[in-house]
């Protein structure tokens, strides 16, 4: 493993240079990798593994997602099976179902696992809160995780572009003595850029905090708050949206993704520079208590229980669709549709 200095903290990471694809193929040459679930992470991980030369099969229920798997080249009866049949055939069972689906499928999945198999996750939820999910693996199997830091779609797109999406990895249970090798080989096989170590608990906690925080929940709250203040003070929807969202996503985000926010501060106008330096403190001070409250809610299992309870309601999907429709139909995101059409690259 390579030792890297991350802002003054030394961490060990695994790169594709020191753990090449050839090594990963050698480690997994006798394994059958069964990807269970073809929803969010399943397609990207399954197709990348297949394209990288690994022995992969897919397990998925009949329906639209099953048809999507066929469209992606998986053949019923050869490389595409029911969940139970694929799990029985696999020596490495990659459980890429949603958290709610894992809970419902777990009793069936557990019966399919044989001594010496590896049970793989891309999220620590089911194991971290297994007192709530019921997902308690038997002691004679490896339990491992590789968690790409992005969607399955991004994982696949970046793979096809010759790039890699960074991933965390963890070993929860090593029954065979080869759990770490299996984990790292799978991480390289799915197309990770580099791999950094975590635990199931740390991954689950940071992931839920991120989704509710800066990745989705907090960013929507911040954007909407600024948009509303501008609109309430007489600015048009077009102006409010451009100053709140469009400039951020189209101009600034690509720059600070490539160069960092420190570079942005050093390379903006003096007026923007002064204002950003003055106001980052008040925003930090206002937001940090909210993030701390969020983190403790996640760490305690409260957020996991909310998710479990919500997903267990028979009418959950109806309520969810109403909430999503309200977000979709808000003025800010209706404005976004028009603004996107007006981008030069979208002109007829």
Give structural notes.
The structure is a single chain. The chain is of the alpha/beta class. The chain has two domains: 197 residues, NAD(P)-binding Rossmann-like Domain (Rossmann fold), CATH 3.40.50.720; 137 residues, N-(1-d-carboxylethyl)-l-norvaline Dehydrogenase, domain 2. The protein is 57% helix and 15% strand. The chain has a ten-stranded mixed sheet, with helices on both faces. The protein is globular and about 65 Å long. The model has no long low-confidence stretch (mean pLDDT 95).
Structural features:
single chain; 2 domains; Rossmann fold; alpha/beta; N-(1-d-carboxylethyl)-l-norvaline Dehydrogenase, domain 2; globular; 348 residues; 10-stranded mixed sheet; 17 helices
* Tally of helical runs: 17
What is the terminal-to-terminal distance? Answer: 51 Å
Major β-sheet, in short? 10 strands, mixed
What general form does the structure show? globular
Q: Secondary-structure element sequence?
A: EEHEHEHEHEHEHHEHEHEHHHHHHHH
- Gyration radius over CA: 22 Å
What is the β-strand count? 10
Instruction: Indicate the percent of residues in helices.
Output: 55-70%
CATH homologous superfamily (4th level) name of the largest domain: NAD(P)-binding Rossmann-like Domain
List segments where confidence is low: pLDDT < 50 over at least 5 consecutive residues: none
CATH topology-level fold name of the largest domain: Rossmann fold
Structural class: alpha/beta
- Mean pLDDT metric: 95
How are the strands of the largest sheet arranged?
1-2-10-9-8-7-6-3-4-5
SS strand fraction: 5-15%
Counting structural domains, the number is 2
The CATH architecture term of the largest domain is: 3-Layer(aba) Sandwich
